[in-house]
Specification:
tRNA processing, Rossmann fold, tRNA (guanine(46)-N7)-methyltransferase activity, seven-stranded mixed sheet, 9 helices
C-alpha cells in the first residue's frame, strides 16, 4: 500500500491499481480475520517498522532458501510452488485484498506451512529484505498497463528491478510470465540493464512453461481470448 510522506523517513510512493473489488464472502472475511496475521512476514510497513529494520529470513524459515512472488493474484501459483517445494520458504506480496482472501482459502485447503503473506506493495517488501537474500523471484501476469503513458507503472522498470536485483543472490532466478507482446519487449529491454541475463537458447525456452508451472486463472483467460503466453527466465549476474 502507499506509504505517507507525512512521516520523516517514510518512502512516498504512488500506488497504481485497486486494493479491493467486490464484497468479500463471509468465509473470506473469516480467513482474513483468523489467518492473515499468523502468516505475516513481520513488520514491513513503515508505520510498524519506522527504523526500516531488515526481516530475519533465517529465523522466519529456519535457514531454507527463500523465494518471492510479486503480485500473486488469486494465489494458485504461490500455493502450488509451496506444495511442490516444501524445502523452501516463499513470501507472496499482493495489495489486492480480494486476491489475498482467495489465497488464504487455498492455503487452508492445501495445508501448506512454508508461506508468508504480505498484503501490500512489493516495493515496501524490498525495503526490508536483506541484500542477496532471495534465491528466486516470480512475476506472473503483471498488470500490463497497455497505454504508452502508463508504461512507467509496469513492474519491469528500473524503479522496481534495481531493488529486486539487490535482494537476489548472485545466480538467483527471476521468472516472468506474460501474454502481452509489448510487455515481453519491455522486459527483455529493461531486465538485463538491472544485472540479469536472459537464459533462452531457443524458442522452446520462452514458448514452453517451466516444469513446475501451474496455469493460473489469468493465463486461462489469456488463452481463451487468443493471446500467447511467454515464459521468460533470467539469472542474476
Amino acid at each position: 500500500m502507499t506509504s505517507s510522506n507525512k512521516h520523516p523517513g517514510a518512502p512516498w510512493r504512488n500506488f497504481y491499481g485497486r486494493v479491493k473489488g467486490k464484497t468479500l464472502r463471509p468465509s473470506q472475511e473469516t480467513y482474513l480475520e483468523e489467518d492473515l496475521a499468523k502468516l505475516s512476514p513481520g513488520a514491513v510497513d513503515w508505520e510498524v517498522n519506522p527504523e526500516r529494520e531488515n526481516l530475519d529470513l533465517e529465523a522466519m524459515f529456519g535457514g531454507k532458501p527463500v523465494w518471492l512472488e510479486i503480485g500473486f493474484g488469486g494465489g494458485e501459483h504461490l500455493v502450488h510452488q509451496a506444495a511442490t517445494h516444501p524445502h523452501v520458504g516463499i513470501i507472496g506480496c499482493e495489495p489486492y485484498i480480494n486476491g489475498v482472501a482467495m489465497l488464504l482459502g487455498k492455503i487452508r485447503e492445501a495445508g501448506v506451512e512454508n508461506l508468508k503473506v504480505y498484503p501490500g506493495d512489493a516495493r515496501n517488501m524490498f525495503d526490508v529484505l536483506p541484500d542477496e537474500s532471495l534465491d528466486k523471484a516470480f512475476l506472473n501476469y503483471p498488470d500490463p498497463w497497455p497505454k504508452t503513458r502508463h508504461h512507467r507503472r509496469r513492474f519491469v522498470t528500473q524503479e522496481h528491478l534495481e531493488p529486486l536485483a539487490r535482494a537476489l543472490k548472485p545466480g538467483a532466478e527471476f521468472r516472468v510470465a506474460t501474454d502481452i507482446p509489448d510487455y515481453v519487449r519491455q522486459t527483455l529491454q529493461e531486465v538485463p540493464k538491472a544485472g540479469f541475463e536472459w537464459l533462452a537458447e531457443g524458442p522452446g525456452d520462452w514458448r514452453e512453461p517451466w516444469d513446475d508451472w501451474i496455469s493460473t486463472r489469468y493465463e486461462q483467460k489469456a488463452l481463451r481470448e487468443g493471446r500467447t503466453p511467454h515464459y521468460l527466465t533470467f539469472r542474476k549476474r
